[in-house]
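Protein modeling request. Please complete all fields; requests missing the sequence field cannot be processed.
Requester role: graduate student
Desired output: 3D structure, token encoding
Chains: 1
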Amino acid sequence: MATVPSTRQGLRSPCRFSLSLVLSLSVSLVLGCGADSGSAASNVVAEVGPDQISSEEFRLSYALGFPHLTRGAASSRENYLQRMIDERLLALEGFRLGLHELPGVQRKIASMRAELLVERVFEREVNDRVVVTDSKIREAIARASVR
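Delivered output (147 residues):
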């Protein structure tokens, strides 16, 4: 498990902090909605200050991440984890500087929270209830090709 300090020297732009802060909060919101509070400590792949990156969080982020960051060398997973750690460090520094209280950041957080809630409701009310079997797919293809 990687352990890193909670702050990093030489951070530059408040815009970069804001973006990282919003991204970090988004990940927390998404994972927090369905997280199991009893997960084992062995599922932690990195500790960043007071925060932890779980194996599930890493897996989801890696699977949905930018393709150019996840393909290629065997070290791509380690590089991707390092980027997640760097983003978390930026977010922690943004919190330390109070950037989360800026009106622009608050608006972005509220907007992302609303989007994530709509996604979650859609997943629960639509995706989880719709079952498409192979036979139904074949029937639909047959109906479409008869015309």
